[in-house]
UniProtKB/TrEMBL annotation:
Its cofactor is Zn(2+). Keywords: Signal. Belongs to the peptidase M14 family. It holds the Pfam family Peptidase_M14. PROSITE patterns: PEPTIDASE_M14. InterPro entries: Cytosolic_carboxypeptidase (IPR050821), Peptidase_M14 (IPR000834). Residues 150-409 form the Peptidase M14 domain. It comes from the Bacteria. The keyword Signal applies. Residues 1-25 form the signal peptide. This is Peptidase M14 domain-containing protein.
Amino acid sequence: MRHLASPVLHALAIAILMLANQVLAADPLHFIDTSFENASPLDWEVLADGTVRIDLIYDHERDSPNRAAGHWHFRIDAEPGSELTLLLNHFSNVWNGRSALACSDATIGFISPNGSQWQSIETEFIKDAGQLRFTVTVPPSGSLWVARLPPYRISDLNRLLAEIAEHPLVEVTPIGETVQQRPLEIVRIGREDAPNRVFIRARAHPWEPGGNWVVEGMMRHLLKTHDEDSASYLDRYCVYIMPMANKDGVAMGRTRFNVLGKDLNRDWNAPADENLCPENAALELWLTGMLNSGRRPHLALELHNDESGKLHLSRPDDTQLEAYLVRMNRLESLLVEKTWFREGATDPTFRNSGTLGEGWLSRFGIDAVIHELNANWIEGLQSRPSAEHWMIYGQQLCDVLDAYFKATD
Ligand SMILES: [Zn+2]
């Protein structure tokens, strides 16, 4: 009996295995690749109906209930021509101690056949579950890149810096290192003795690449040779740019905090902790050097992405607040006049303590302001954002700064 049963069972087992393999082979998804620069950590599972559920991984703030997920960037390997429905999960962020869903009806995404040219797509917001759903078609190559926003990686920045570093009007100054020892730099465009100085920081929050595209557009425009406008801008001002504050987070595809759980746009009301937050400590050391050598920035812009795109005018208890607000209102008017910015400033009750904007104003008397860029819609262009639109904004900002300082000279 044993001799008879064994081959039968064996054949049966093989048949079951073959059937199982066929079922698996019928699933068009081969793999989700998150092995590359700026890809987001995630978990995924194919549900019974074939939908691919993608669980984003939160990053957490130290000594705080705050947590954030909202960056996604991955590559799908699947059968060419197949349609895949993706369900993105885990947007239940905690922001400033309050629950805050990191997606909405307005949230868009981006897809690319090659990881460099991106096209926006709509998503379906599933309100009750706090999830996003969208369907993609896999290109003939069998690979499709998917991201929240057109990615800007450290390699993109390095390529730009290599291109411009030798220009006589460019100085790249190393100012320190991130937690994971990536070099941090300030890029000066223009002459050190220019009558006005502007500081701009981008990418304190890794999911927000808009500021990187803006400063690239600005740098390229200011360095255009044989351009009369560019030459006259640099007679009036020079810019000091910290192009990528949270490099570790960008490299690792994180959403908001540095790798030790510090928010680089918080705690500016006190000196930065050089162990937990070397990115801010390095910047503060640089700023102190500027102040001590009589080179106080006349204006500081901190660039971010969110879902409303406003100029954030925080109102600390400060004796100089009124004069500051007059200048910031003028800046806002010039933004509307000379760029596609139409989103306006926050209302008069707005206050967000500890941001670079408020901290630099309170502690150093610098006209500093947070400038958000709407991640889903550009009102002034009636268009979804793109890397090109943000580069153009950087170009337009050159004109804004020129007019801003012309009025105060
Ligand atoms: Zn931000």
